UniProtKB/TrEMBL annotation:
This is Uncharacterized protein. Keywords: Membrane, Transmembrane, Transmembrane helix. InterPro entries: YjdF-like. Residues 428-449 are annotated as: Disordered. Residues 428-442 have a biased composition (Low complexity). The chain crosses the membrane at residues 16-35, 41-59, 66-88, 94-113, 120-140, 160-181, 251-268, 280-298, 304-325, 337-357.
Amino acid sequence: MSRTPTRAFHGERTNAALSWVTVAVAIAVGAWALGEGLVHEVLFAATAVTIALVPAIALESTRAALPWEVTAAAIAALVAALAAPDLWSRQVVLYGGAGVLALALTLELNALTEVRLERWLAVAFVAMLAAAIAATWATLTWVQDGIAGTDVIATNAEVMWLLIAATTVGLFAGVCFDLYYRQFPGEELVSAPVDGVDEELFAVKADIDGAPSLEERLPLSGSVQGWAVHAMRVAMAAMIAYGVLTVDTGIVTNVGAMLAITFVPTLLRRRYDLPFDAGLVLWITLVVFLHALGSAYIYERSFWWHNVTHPLSATLVGAVGYVAIRTLDEHRDEIHLPPELIPSFVVLFVISAGVFWEIGEFAQDAIAAATGLQMPLAQHGLDDTMTDIVFNTIGGTITALWGLPYLTELTDDITDSLEGWRVLEYGSSTASDAGDGGSSDSSEAESTD
């Protein structure tokens, strides 16, 4: 009987032997790179070996391994980098290999944990992981450059093309991942429908049960919080007026968008009766107000203002990621993320969203340079990009560790209000039926092994 992805994890001898050979190659190349001071090769080898060892450690068996083709593809990028003619070429090859490493991690999550992903989400997940891995490597290299006085990553354009390479290959690897699994009807990503975790049970498992609202935790009364929101809205309206008088379209566009965002909680509360307490509204308004202030005046005059606004805005992005995964988990039988892994997903969501944002800014810079048009977003050099990524990660971590309790009631109400929404239920029953069939086929196949 032909080997399937699940069989590889459960201990096929040939697959394990080939996988261990590729791990040995990675260790050898990594050790040589360490002696030569090749930063990216060392980071890649360390990441690849760590990922490859996870099945053996988790299942306590040397025969448990990734499909050897996946491990070999990752190591192929490492070996190919050694043959590259210059530093830049080596970096592009290695960062492209981040997409294969992300694919390997996604396979392991599916096989070794309770995580269940629909195919479209698995493809997106691989791309997000690739972006996060690349951002981590770039950050470590940037820090090493600063400490050692080297210039392994010399310019902003270099780091942006490396992030683009990783994300593109990650997306491609995710699509290949999907096509690969289609060859094995009994080996669906979703082996069986997984019900979303009940709201009360989720709160207990995630240790966020009975937490006070943000409005109650702040040392200000609800009315004072409301007046602070109104004051910031008036200030943003004044910025827009200034932009109109000075014919500054950048201020009008950016601040206008920020002002509109401050009214979204009010509209959602009135339209869907969602529990946006005064503390949450104040948090959202403060974040966009500081961004508006930066766009109108401070960003061009003070570099450090980015370091204030990015972690704050990252907390909002993390909140969006949390609400999204909880909603999908609740309404899609084929999607499940255990409560204990939710914080990690929030951080991943923020880091990858930050990378996609930086790529968008980079693209707008290219358009502005080619056309002479003034774009609403722009980058300001390598240090700007890297500190953005660092502080985005800090903001996402803050949300993951301390912010989720303040979002629980809101998230529960959102999932309840979306009950029966066709977009969320589309194709779910069909996929569930396929999953049931896949589960039985898989069990039968393993019993004959």
